[in-house]
Amino acid sequence: MFRVIFWGVRGSVPTPGPSTVGVGGNTSCIEVRLDKDLIILDGGTGLRLLGLGLNGQESIHAHLFFSHVHWDHIQGFPFFGPALAPGNRFDLYGGGNVTRTLEETLAGQMNYPNFPVTLNAMGSEMTFHNIGEDEPITFGKGKDKVKVTAIPLNHPNGCFGYRIDYHDRAMVYATDTEHYDEPDPHLLKACRNAGLLVYDGQYTPEEYTGYPGFPSKVGWGHSTFVEGVRLAALAGVRRLAFTHHDPAHDDSAVEEEERRSRELFRESMAAREGLIIDLE
């Protein structure tokens, strides 16, 4: 099994309401189900929903990879029910490219006066790992060995994407990255022949460059579905799911972006909460 489940697909800030209910308003969180291992990518508000989905399971062990510690990628962690339960175990991974470690940052958002429960009061067993770029993390044994590789991305304060390799299949998670005039050779290499690329499509090309009455977003650390298509095509990626949708984009706007992306790359889609992709 290599199954990818989207629990949060929104960027910057949660956007609940009737105009976003189709795509979803929770911030970044993806579940990756392998045969014997559970990987979680990012801890936005979608992580709370994932936790509800895990209710009733005993002795959960998961590997939780954070792309970075901007608030929309960590704000769901205090509400992640399984992390409160004794008997559950979590390995948490994040970059050492900020002034504080991942553990210090997660603890900081839960300290007084921000939150009533501290990180230390959560009942599960947590092991924190500070990782560097291109550093492979492996777990599992024999034919079930999993390799996760951190990919440096172009985002203010630093950010990691991740490539997950398992059973000769691979996916790449590359949200919160801004494209260059030419595709980032580092990211292009990491995406080679992946079965799925999950890519930052926060802006339309028009929004990114700007137009009268709408300022340019150049330098803000995000990309477009068109750049995702270009990267996927050059890297020989089978399927593209663009995510981190702008909070100003309602369901109809995201659907229009999806229509435009499929004109360029047929196996392209807008990520939605509840979307399930099986890599074969």
Characterize the structure shown.
The protein has 280 residues and is an alpha/beta fold. Helices cover 19% and strands 28% of the residues. It is built from six helices and 14 strands. The strands form two sheets. A seven-stranded mixed sheet has the order 6-5-4-3-2-1-14. Strands 7-8-9-10-11-12-13 form a seven-stranded mixed sheet, covered by helices on one side. The longest helix is centred in the last third of the chain and has 14 residues. The chain is globular.
Number of helices: 6
Span between termini: 8 Å
The succession of helices and strands, N to C, reads: EEEHEEHEEEEEHEHHEHEE
Top CATH class: Alpha Beta
Please name the fourth-level CATH homologous superfamily.
Ribonuclease Z/Hydroxyacylglutathione hydrolase-like
Task: Estimate percent helicity.
Answer: 10-25%
Work out the count of structural domains.
1
Model regions low in confidence, pLDDT < 50 over at least 5 residues: none
- The gyration radius over C-alpha positions equals 18 Å
- How many runs of DSSP E, i.e. beta strands? 14
CATH architecture: 4-Layer Sandwich
**At the third CATH level, what is the topology name?**
Metallo-beta-lactamase, Chain A
Strand order of the largest sheet: 6-5-4-3-2-1-14
Strand content: 25-35%
Break the fold down into its secondary structure elements and pairings.
Blueprint: E1 2-8, E2 29-34, E3 38-41, H1 46-53, E4 61-65, E5 89-95, H2 102-110, E6 125-131, E7 136-139, E8 146-153, E9 159-166, E10 169-174, H3 185-191, E11 196-200, H4 205-209, H5 225-235, E12 239-243, H6 251-264, E13 268-270, E14 276-278
Parallel strand pairs: 3-4, 4-5, 5-6, 10-11, 11-12, 12-13
Antiparallel strand pairs: 1-2, 1-14, 2-3, 7-8, 8-9, 9-10
